[in-house]
Protein 1
Amino acid sequence: MKDCIFCKIVNNEIPAEKVYEDDDILAFEDINPKAPVHILLIPKQHFASLNEIPKDQKEILSHLMLTARKIASEKKIGKKGYRIVLNTGKDSGQEVFHIHLHLFGGRRMTWPPG
Ligand code: 5GP
Ligand code: ZN
């Protein structure tokens, strides 16, 4: 989608530190990390948020989640623990309206989130 920063990363129009890629999804380092491990996972196809994922494409959600699990294991945080965050809409703090999972780890997370 034009003017979407994550679509530009998918299309290699702006650079990113990629950690995983296949035909359907991409994972890359967050530009402003909030934890020692902070990776974003996105579908290559543009969906603004969870609210826009069609029911007939729900497999993309499990693919994102299980890839986050795989990356957590590769980054050696799989056993110590990690947090996956999916902000949806303004009240959640979503700033980039191309759906993305945050994978956080490498430090003790606090609860409840802010
Ligand atoms: P949100 O608040 O929408 O859930 O999170 C957006 C995330 O995208 C933020 O953690 C922010 O640091 C990250 N981000 C924004 N622009 C860029 C960019 O151009 N490149 C990368 N790698 N991350 C970005
Ligand atoms: Zn997009």
Note: The helical segments are 5-10, 59-74.
Protein 2
Amino acid sequence: MKLLLVEDELEIQDFLKPSLADAGYEVDVANDGQAAEKLASAHVYDALIVDLGLPDQDGIDLILRLRKIGVASPVLILSARRSVDDRVAGLELGGDDYLTKPFALAELLARLRNLLKRNIAVSAGPTMLRVGDLELDLLRRRASRAGDLLNLSPQEFGLLEYLCRHAGRVVTRSMLLAEVWGMRIQPDTNVVDVHIYRLRGKVDSEGRVPLIKTLRGVGYVLETQEAATA
Ligand code: CA
């Protein structure tokens, strides 16, 4: 697994590079956005770790530009900014997960594993999506968990499909409003919360490992089952 670490703080570089190597990753380091863009357009990385406070540009702008030039690798954002707004902005603009500095190495490694696993977890055939024991038949619009058919409304199915396609990643309310409900503006509505509540009642019914997690003020994540049981 090959990673690109975009971080200007030497202290963090010196700590992360050997730690990630110990964990079995091959790591390239970029000190600024320009170097990162150069490396990311020349190599394919399994994941990027991007600090938002770079000397030459904002990390968010870098992520946006990388997405524009076709870099599709998952991005873990590192930032000293703690506000919920910053986290939401980072996730909506192309980041896949967010870690606030200071962080524990164990947490970074866990988030990274989760990001890297999601491609494997969602073993999508052309008409089937699978995340752990959750299975979605996209042709018949039917979902089941551990073989039990879930009785979902079309809206709930759409919501679950979106969560499955982004399994292991945080999705925000406005992402769901835009993608599932087609609402580009953010109306003052609790439609997402209501549907998540109902969906959770069906997907995570009693006795099952809960898969749909709430990140307060930020959004939701459909855990891959290994992560959920860990
Ligand atoms: Ca920095």
Note: Residues 2-124 form a domain with the Rossmann fold fold (CATH 3.40.50.2300).
